[in-house]
Write a structure and sequence with these properties.
Six copies of one chain form a homohexamer. Chain A contains two helices and four strands. Chain A has helices at 14-32, 60-65, and strands at residues 3-9, 40-46, 51-53, 56-57. In chain A, strand 3 (51-53) and strand 4 form a beta hairpin. The longest helix of chain A is centred in the N-terminal third of the chain and has 19 residues, at 14-32. The radius of gyration of chain A is 14 Å and the shape is elongated.
Chain lengths: 71, 71, 71, 71, 71, 71
């Protein structure tokens, strides 16, 4: 019955979201030995100016590179 | 002082949201014997592709019927 | 498929929690015309010192009376 | 490593959001004596009809004045 | 920079939690092509009486079998 | 009417929590020009094994130093 909330910056495609939901569901099912039907995932995208690290706004272009401020 | 966060799929009218907030507030007040003024409700709507059951995206048309995948 | 997170101060009995979950589920089903089986509720209790209004900690004894600071 | 989620009504400027993120980060760093780089802030704005006090919808115009219903 | 909140019923071992965190992190990194260092996971366990499906409390023994009420 | 959820690792004193709540409330009031009585703060502490960065569990001793894995 896991419920999973994912937060990330705006800019991901529908395919990205579907893929991450599918892979995270599989990871949870394998790790916790539960039925897939019990796994619910909620995604919330945050616009630029709604995600901060060390008080500085993150940008979508930082995501893949991992070069957010303070990382 | 209950704080309640509600998540559901996009597509509800302003009237639906007002009605669910009113009814949930009344339910909390009755069940917990608290003052209405202490009850706060936050609603977050999730777009298609932001809510998954068993790794499959839910659709607004599934909501009333209850025929989400995995249910 | 609503997912509902409820936060309140520690001190409620198991019966209180079951009653609020039952009543809130019924309220959501009636207001949103969805199947009960799609409604999930998560309760998080917060200890004294983990809930603040106007920067002052709330107390369980304030809950019924509605006399939290700032209300 | 604090993670902070802030919810407020839609209508704040990008400057407002940046300022609140900067000030809250500084407050957390000072109070908890942690490194700024460990502080992450997520902001979620709620549209009119997605925030309720005492079962009544809050309005952006209530925010500064503090005259939300039930306050 | 994904932030992931996981909710499940009390009763998982420290090893279960570490394993699900490791596997979910790997799933997110692969699906979103981001750096592992940007992925943060918060787990919240809910006691019996703090998780409800269709208004009925879920039990830890239901988790593996997937036979929660309403599923 | 801001609602703020703070998550951090277990191990903070009641004084730490009260101080961070007081300072964050003041920061929000100043930055958003709202009434203190509209600001609510919820704190959730996470036990060891319930907070992960890059798939590795954070420890309370990492908090002040900011030397979490991946930072």
């Amino acid at each position: 019955m896991p419920i999973i909330e994912m937060h990330f910056l705006e800019g991901r495609s529908l395919e990205d979201k579907a893929r991450v939901a599918e892979k995270v569901t599989a990871a949870v099912v394998e790790a916790l030995d539960c039925s897939p039907s019990t796994v619910r995932i909620l995604i919330t995208e945050h616009k630029h100016g709604e995600f901060y690290v060390a008080g500085k706004a993150g940008r979508a272009s930082d995501q893949a590179a991992g070069n957010m401020p303070g990382q």
